Structures are given as C-alpha cells and as structure tokens.
UniProtKB/TrEMBL annotation:
Residues 59-282, 290-339 form the Pyruvate phosphate dikinase AMP/ATP-binding domain. Its EC number is 2.7.9.1. It catalyses: pyruvate + phosphate + ATP = phosphoenolpyruvate + AMP + diphosphate + H(+). The gene is ppdK. Residues 529-865 form the PEP-utilising enzyme C-terminal domain. It comes from Actinomadura luzonensis. Keywords: ATP-binding, Nucleotide-binding, Pyruvate, Transferase. Belongs to the PEP-utilizing enzyme family. This is Pyruvate, phosphate dikinase.
Amino acid sequence: AKYVYDFTEGNRNLKDLLGGKGANLAEMTNLGLPVPPGFTITTEACRHYLAEGAVHDGLDQEVAEHLKALEERMGRKLGQADDPLLVSVRSGAKFSMPGMMETVLNIGLNDESVHGLAKQAGGNERFAWDSYRRLIQMFGKTVLGIDGDLFEQALDAVKGRRHDTDLDAGELQRLVETYKGIVREQTGKDFPTDPREQMRLAINAVFDSWNAPRAILYRRQERIPADLGTAVNVMAMVFGNYGDDSGTGVAFTRDPGTGRQGIYGDYLQNAQGEDVVAGIRNTIPLEELERLDKTSFDELVRIMETLETHYKDLCDIEFTIERGKLWMLQTRVGKRTAAAAFCIATQLVDQGLITLDEAVTRVTGDQLAQLMFPRFDGGAEKKKIAKGMNASPGAAVGKAVFSSERAVELSGQGEEVILVRRETNPDDLAGMIAAKGILTSRGGKTSHAAVVARGMGKTCVCGAEELDVSTAEHRFTAPGGVVVDEGDVISIDGTSGEVFLGEVPVVASAVVEYFEGAEPDDELVRAVDRIMRHADAQRRLGVRANADTPEDAARARRFGAQGIGLCRTEHMFLGERRQLVEDLVLAATDEERQAALDALEPLQKSDFIGIFQAMEGAPVTIRLIDPPLHEFLPDITDLSVKIATSQDVTDKDRALLAAVKRLHEQNPMLGLRGVRLGLVIPGLFAMQVRAIAQAAKEVPGARPEIMIPLVAAVQELESVREEAVRILAEVGVEALIGTMIEVPRAALTAGQIAEAAEFFSFGTNDLTQMTWGFSRDDVEAAFFSRYLDLGIFGVSPFETLDREGVGRLVRIAVEEGRATRPDLHIGICGEHGGDPDSVHFCHDVGLDYVSCSPFRIPVARLEAGRAAL
Ligand code: PEP
Ligand code: MG
C-alpha cells in the first residue's frame, strides 16, 4: 500500500484518504496555485498507528523518500545548519474539526540551523529566533504534552505590556533558553535537536491528537465517526513573521453570513500560523491589505475567483505572505449560515456555475427549519448579559421563574415565563412545557434541558456558565453585578445562545410569511421560493399533513400539503366533549351508550365538514379513535382521595370509582386503545364512520380515507372493515379503508393485512416504542442523554427513524404488503415524516408520501426533492 502522497499526486476527491486539508492542498497544487510543496501521510497510516500503537513498517522509509524529493525541490535539507529547510506538520481529517487537533510549525530548527535561517533571511536574526521560540513552544505543548501556560507566562514576563513583535533578537534568544529550561524541567530531557526526530515525533503527535479528549467530544457532538483517523500534512515552511512585508490571514470568497460577494477576511502583519485566530494582536480587515501590498492583494482576489469557479461554492482560505509573495496554505468549501446557504445556492445558479438541481442539494431541511423560527429584531437595542450554548433555536421572552411549579402556576395565569435552572431534570418537565423558553447555567447540547427542549421545539439556551443561579433565592446574577429576580423579564435567543435583560422585540420569520402566502420580496425569500419550486418539481414523494382542525388543515394547505395523512380523531374529544367520551366508556346499559354516541355524532360530523372544506378536494385520512384509555377517565388516585375525604359521596361517585378501577391499566399505551377499543365498545367506530360518510356527502369533492389504528392481526381489521363498508354503502359514499402499521406484528404479517387494507400508513411513533421497548412518553427525559453520551445511538430513535431496526420492519411491510396488493398506497404519519434523514429513508424504501405537522411540511418537501436528486 501507498501511505504517502505528494501534493501533486492527490485531488479533492480523496478526502477519505488524504483528509480535507490534504485533498484540497493537492487540488490547489494541480490548479497551479502557489502552494508550498509538501506531502500528505494518509488516514490509513493513522488508523494503523492508532490500532497497533506504532507506525506501519514501511512508513518511515516512505516519508524519508518524500522528504528527500522535497529537499531536492527546495534545494536545501531539513534543518541543514547553514541553509535549513523547515517544515510544518499539520493534522487534517476528512471532516473539518477546527482547532481540535494539532499543528507544529518551524520543524528543523535547532541551535545551529537558527543561524542558518537568519542568514537565509538576509541577516534577520530577530525573525530566526522568533521562529525558534515558536517551535519550542508549539512542540513542547503539543508533542511533549507540557502545559502551554508555562510558555505563555515566560513570554509575558519578557513582553510586559509590549506586543510580541516588539521583542528584539536578544530577548527572543534568551526566551529560547528559558523555553529549553522549561522543557528540561517538565520532561527530564533536552529539547530534541535532531530535525528528523522532531518531524517523526510531530507526526506521531498529530496521529495521537485524533484521540484527544476534546476531539472525541467534538466528534460525538458533530456525529463524526470515531474510526476515521486523521491525515498528516508535511509542508515546506513559508514565513509570515519575517517583518512588516509579511503576514498571515484568513478569507472567505463571499460573506458567510449573507452570501454577498466581496472581500471578507482578516489579516495580521508579521505573524505566523494561529496568530490570526488566537487574537494575540488586533487583525485588520482584509480590504486594507490592498493598501499595504497591492500586488499580493490583487493576486489573492484573482485566486479567490479561481477557487470559487473551480469549487463552484463559497470557499474559505488561509494564506501567508512572505516578503511580498503570496502563498496558499489551505482552502475548503466554507461553513455558512442557513440564510447564506439559500442565497449562495441561487447566486451560483445565476452565475451559471451550478444547476438548479445542484442548488437544491446545497441546502438542507434543517437550514430551512432554522429560517422558520421567529427571531429577535436585529435593529432593536439589547442588553446582553450572558452567552450560553444555542441548544434549541427560536426567540423567547418572558418572566424569569426558578421552579417548575412556579412556571406552571404563572403560565396558568396567562403569563409568559422563561424557566431558569442550574440544570433541569425529569421533575422539571411540567415547567418546561409551561415555559416559553428554558435557560440553564450548566450542561451541554446533550444535557437534559437541551434534549427535551429540542424534542418539544422549545427555545433553549443551556450552559450559560457566567450566570450564577440560585434556585433557593429565586434569582440569578450575571457578570457586571446584574441581578435578575423572579418576575423580571428576560429574552433568550436559542439560535445564538445569547441572553438579554428585558424584553427584546420578536419578529416573525419572513420565510414563514412567504409560506403563508406573502409575495417573496427580499433576496432570501426569493431564493427559498426558487429552491422550493424546484424541489417540488423533482420530488417523487407526496407530502401530507398531520392535522385535526380546520385551522391546521388550512395552514397545511398553504404550506403545500397535498392532503391530510393523519387526522387524530381523539383530539376532537378533548375539552368539554371529554365528558361525553367518559359517559360512553363508562356506560352501564345499551341505552346509556347509545345516548352518548348520539350526542357525539353530530359534533364529529361538523368537525369533518370543516376539514374537508379546508382541504378542497385533497385526500383526508381520518384515523378512528385511538386514545390510551386513561386520557379520558378521571385519575384513579384523585378520584379515590376525593371519595375517601368527601362528606357527601353519592352512589354515582362510587359507581364511577368502581368502573375506573375496573378499567385501570398498568400500561395504558399497551392497553385498551385503537382497534381494540373499537371492538370492545360497540357502536363507537360505526358512529365515527357514519359521521365521516355524512360529512363527505355534504362537501362536494371530499375524499375521505378511513384508517384503523393499532392493528396487529388481519382479523381485527376485517371485522371493522365489514361494518365500515356497510355504513358507507348505506350513506352512499366512497372511501378507502386502510390501516396504520404501528405494531411490529402488523409489519411482520403485512402480506395478510394487505388483503383487508387499501392503504398502509406507518405509525413510527408506536412502531419505535414497541420495537425498542422504549416508552415514548418517558424515556427521552429519563435516560436518553446518557445513551447519547455512550454512543448507543447518535440521535433519539423517536427523532430520526432507526433504519436498522424499525426501518427493517418498514421494508418488510412495504415488500409483503405490495406483494399482496400491488397498488397498495403507503405513507408514514409518525413524527419521522418531518425529519430530514427519515424522509430520505422513506424515499429509498418507495413510500408514496410522508405526513408531518404543518410547520414541517416545507422541510419535508425540500428533503423529498433532495432525496430524488
Ligand atoms: C404513531 O404511532 O406513529 C402515530 C402516528 O400515532 P400516534 O402518535 O397518535 O400514536
Ligand atoms: Mg400510534
């Protein structure tokens, strides 16, 4: 195998092997751009090293050959005393992990070659000693594992209030001695002076840095696989620290915030490597380079154009100017905000660089979702008091409260509250639901608060460590002596992680207003419009909505829903109608039961009329009632207590308690719900079917589809179907009759079930619950953050469909269902229908449509388009 590639041998498609940096350095080299020569050691070599604890046998030899070629090209040898070649050794994984792994510059310097370097630089002693002290500092910290502060302190002691550039050659030379002393003291050995040894140790240190704790943490958070390893780039040094005619900078080919074309970046004179980002001195805006060094500036602008045209995308760049000569040290397709992603994609189409198909693949459903949250008014005056992690996006304003109880209490009185806690735990759930937003001072993006808030779509800032939260005193303090007591208004920005004192005005999302029907009138909205139209034209999957009210149905229609995929009828029985259902369930005689059904039927009918009207002839899948019984019965404990302590208990109360006890279930989610309820309570499903049929008869063009929940056996479906067919015929209305597939047994016997079903809809909420044996109501809060930390899954299976387990059941059901009935219409209506990754899965397994909540419809449309491209 080949473990080392010269920059001239690679290209940008070899990221797996050469890492992102190495692949792009090769690409730039082959484009003829000024890249210092060098070579890349592959990720395969890293994986071997990490697995075996030592480099591959042939590696040293292969590196030596490439170094020799480099030396010949440069006309000097690594660390050669009178005229040294110096190299940098840099990490570069497939996915960028900014600042997570190691880099060592100026390798090849020692007590002799430092003089050679000064000579090479025309007698610039200061530069040579500055480079040498940087080597010991970086090498000491990253290769030898010495605490970096020790070097910083020694530097500060010499520097005082001056800048590093103010130190003269003598001071830097003495600093080198001090640094060497630190190395000796901390490691018991002298700083290694052999250049080849320096290089070898630096390469291994880069390999090792793959498993540094911060890199592991970063990968877990960004869901980067742990076994990729990093490549190592060895490159001839160019120097930005020669003097004022030199420097180093970073640049973007367009504004990563808005997408606008122009010169965006920072430059630092007389500096090297990380100085720009480390903030040691103030950088200057890149435009000013034009004034300092017009030749280099013009060339940089030209190169940026070349890169954009070549990569057909926004690029970011690191460069160095050495005595008026520009060198490219890195480029990659750059990160950008959600808004910029849409704008850039359509700008590139207009420039003729990419097609609309490509533009659709350049944006994601997650980015679109971000643009649909309300945000704070950018122009408003704000008093920022802290910054935490942006755990769940959106903008929330409310009175600070410090306990779950208080949040529930105040929100019950119509107040908007922000729940502030040091951290949250499952006991805070009620308060989190009641609050507009959640703010914690501890915990990261997978903390309880973050995971639960995201699950609820609620704004959350977590880990705002500057805040001192005192739950006992109902207050928190922020830096600068700011005190916020219970009831004081704060504003939190879940998109940026910022916390503000007082009320910041919130503006609705322009993208949502567009989906609601507003004309596209700014660049972003026009870009969204264009991309959505194209995604719609390309997608094969239909997109429907989960909606149970005429209002939701109408919004869903405006957002582009092609029908309703799930109308949950039990949601129509809440509020004051609940009593009617209670009466029905508890009815002791046929007459009582019939009376309850007769009262419900006209209510149901008018519900359906409203929905059919809102959907204007698009199909409406109505699911017959599926409540876990306990949702409709009085709470057994409350009722027992009431009867035990009350003075005037009636016979009716006692009868009620007896009935509730009889129907009480330990596991209501696995109990008498769905089709089981329909089979046990005579007349219930018949009443619903009649209401649907009669409503459909009154709304011209209505297209009802009747869906039976929680079916596990074809026999259950057959008996419900028989009755439904009869009622439909009586009323004289046609409707498809189908079933949900949400119990594993239904998926496994789908071939039989399809005999009695004209359509399937996967209820992946229950299917996930029953496949994993996870209670959908409890486990996310209880232990999912631990499971995420342990890497048992990268994301909750209730959020993104588990392809291996639940997905296998879906595949089986699709295949066997269609084997029985080739024209079987199949969709999904669990929460996964609006999740980007799950939408791609649905496309891949050949579903006909996805159904999701109205606000996710645009996301599903976009992802369905992307899946088809
Ligand atoms: C499901 O189980 O996925 C489903 C859509 O039904 P519900 O969430 O109402 O149980
Ligand atoms: Mg279900």
